[in-house]
Amino acid sequence: MRISVPHRTDKETARRKINERIGQLFGQFGHYLNDSSHSWDGDRLVFSGNAKGIKANGTVEVTDTEVIIESKLPLLAKPFESRIKSSVEKEAESMFA
Hints:
Layout: E1 2-6, H1 11-29, E2 33-41, E3 44-51, E4 54-62, E5 66-72, H2 81-95
Antiparallel strand pairs: 1-5, 2-3, 3-4, 4-5
């Protein structure tokens, strides 16, 4: 799954917004997660986690103009891919509106 969203700001501000939102999401949904991790490698955030037995991993790359989210969904989640993608797109767009 690949999602691109323009961030309309500089890389540093985009990264800060992403970090803030991750903190909010962990506060809200952290009790559902096991074995979750995320770390920055330059302008690329690498993440992985397990929620209720469903594993996910991927990257969030911040370019000069956009944020690119790439994730590999497990086979179990494939039937929900369009709904998941739509939710992630809306969330990302609202962060950078």
